[in-house]
Amino acid sequence: MVVRTSVRTRRFATKLLDWYDRNGRDLPWRRRGKSNAKALDPYAVLVSEFMLQQTQVSTVIPYFHEFMRRFPTVRALAAKSEQNVLRAWQGLGYYSRARNLREAAARIVTDFAGKVPGTVEQLQILPGIGRYTAGAIASLAYGARAPILDGNVSRVLCRLNLIRRDPRESGVKEMLWKLAEEILPKARVGDFNSALMDLGATVCTPRAPKCAVCPVKGFCRAEAAGAAERIPRPRAVKATPVVVRWTFCIANKSRWLIEQRPVPGRWAGLWQFVTVEGEGGRPDLRRVSERLGFQITDLKALGRVRHALSHRRYIFEVFRGRAAGGGDWGARKWVRTGELSRYPLPRVHEKIAAMLRDSPRFV
Ligand code: SF4
After folding, report:
1. Do the Cβ atoms of 133 and 172 come closer than 8 Å?
2. For the segment 270-279, what is each residue's pLDDT rounded down to a tens digit?
């Protein structure tokens, strides 16, 4: 380990923190502490860390502002319904994060008197908080001496130490956690962790790392070996399966039929137009009516919406039709076009709702 000795560790931290003081990213959750407070607002850090799981900073920022406006404190969040929180999360994806965040807020109110806990052990008791998120909250918000290891930090550590293996392998991951802990300075741990993340996001980037301007290039074995771009080893690309769904926008007396998705599962608890597995070709009206449990008529193709997740691609074939029956039942409701925005919809169904608004009047 190239920065293992205490003198080298100190020099490494000094270089990195000097760079961070001048070049660190100005992110909204890093500004929320009181003007004379060194630490950040733990609740803001909690919210941002949940949002940043699986999502890029630039996408998170507008959601973070809106979320903090709607739910400015742990108590305000804990007091809201799950549907309310899902609605605020709409479009950000990976909705289990929203449910876990609300549940974590409720647990913080009941078990920690409304104060976000400050140790990794306490934080990891809360739903949706693993080793990385706990380390980030404890170090950023409270200055706890806790390491973090996300994709950016893994890449930086692999390059600094010329680790050519896949950082996602469990043995390598454990080694990286150890390294992330060993290089922590005695003071400014939160800033140090933020600096490592920022270095990975802006300088030590996956492609074309900017070694010429890197503040820690003197410590970097990959740069010395001319191997920076080849580390870490790229992940083998797997073919992504394509899944076809049929979505039916069913109208009755100026209202559309929507249904709530089951819990647990993908998009659990969100609302959608009636959707079934596609069978290839055009849906047969009689069979579709049987599958939906009511008679539909006047079925017309409306268009196609594509939606990509990390491990699968969806094609939604969208149809609209009319139903003879009415009334709400089970997890299904009839709503006016203008009421759709009150329900949390997966992004793909938001797009389908937009298609309905843009298509010739039907209801
Ligand atoms: Fe990354 Fe290059 Fe800096 Fe090494 S010198 S840490 S490879 S940017």
Report:
1. no
2. 999 999 888 8
Residue with tokens 């169904």: 349
pLDDT per position as a tens digit, 234-265:
777 788 899 999 999 999 888 999 999 988 88
Q: Which has the closest alpha carbon to 259: 244, 249, 274?
A: 274
- Which single residue is written with the structure tokens 């140790």? 119
Give the pTM. Answer: 0.83
Q: How far is the CA of 54 from the centre of ligand 1 (A)?
A: 24
CATH number, domain 242-358? 3.90.79.10
Catalytic residue among 49, 174, 279, 290: 49
Domain extents in the chain: 7-230, 242-358
Q: Kindly give the distance from the C-alpha atom of residue 198 to the centroid of ligand 1, in angstroms, as a whole number.
A: 12
- 297 three-state secondary structure: strand
**pLDDT score for 237:** 76
Residue 326: CB atoms within 10 A of its CB come to 12
223 in catalytic set? no
Q: Are 295 and 301 in contact (CB under 8 A)?
A: no
**What's the CA-to-centroid distance between 163 and ligand 1, angstroms?**
13
Q: Looking at the domain that runs over 7-230, which CATH code has it been given?
A: 1.10.340.30
Task: Show the low-confidence residues of the chain (pLDDT under 70).
Answer: 1-5, 32-39, 325-330, 360-363
DSSP string across 255-317? EEEEEEPPSSSTTTT-EEEEEEE--SSSPPHHHHHHHHTS-EEEEEEEEEEEEE-SS-EEEEE
The predicted pLDDT at position 98 comes to 96
What are the two backbone dihedrals, phi and then psi, of residue 28, each rounded to the nearest 5 degrees?
-60, -35
Ligand 1 atom at minimum distance from 211 CA? 2
Ligand 1 atom closest to the CA of 228, numbered from 1? 7
Backbone angles phi, psi at 298, to 5 degrees: 60, 40
pLDDT the model gives residue 229: 94
Q: Which two tokens stand for residue 192?
A: 């140090």
**What whole-number distance in Å separates Cα of residue 100 and Cα of residue 79?**
14
User: What is the model's pLDDT at position 362?
Assistant: 64
